């Protein structure tokens, strides 16, 4: 019994940590994919699509601005992610990322996601037109760069 209890005491925290990492990574990748899909929709429709991530509301939506038509909604608080949006920043001071009809991002945009004890960041780079998933250090480096305009 002592051996089983000792092994369980070692394994359970590691399992919880790994589970949190998988959930945080999954939520970040899902959000990154949704932003890329919004860019594809903007190109396909030749119109501006606005991506908005609600801090505290823990959801994401993408909508064609005029007329306001929602094309995607994602709630990361549900399974399998059970994650939260901790922070949303954009270079223009809003929580919006506008994507024009050519699929170009209007400004730098960054989202901090948390699942359990793990945190992941998603950011849109307007210079390269790419969406990235990474660590806090990588996201901080992006926000300090000229690309985050």
What does this structure look like?
The protein has 149 residues and is an alpha+beta fold. The protein has a single domain, classed as minor pseudopilin epsh fold (3-Layer(bab) Sandwich). 36% of the residues lie in helices and 34% in strands. The protein is built from 2 helices and 8 strands; from the N terminus they run αββββββββα. It has helices spanning 2-45, 136-144; strands at 49-54, 59-64, 69-75, 84-90, 96-99, 109-115, 118-125, 130-134. The strands form 2 sheets. A 4-stranded antiparallel sheet has the order 3-2-1-5, covered by helices on one side. It has a 4-stranded antiparallel sheet with strand order 4-6-7-8, sandwiched between helices. The longest helix is centred in the first third of the chain and has 44 residues, at 2-45. The model has no long low-confidence stretch (mean pLDDT 84).
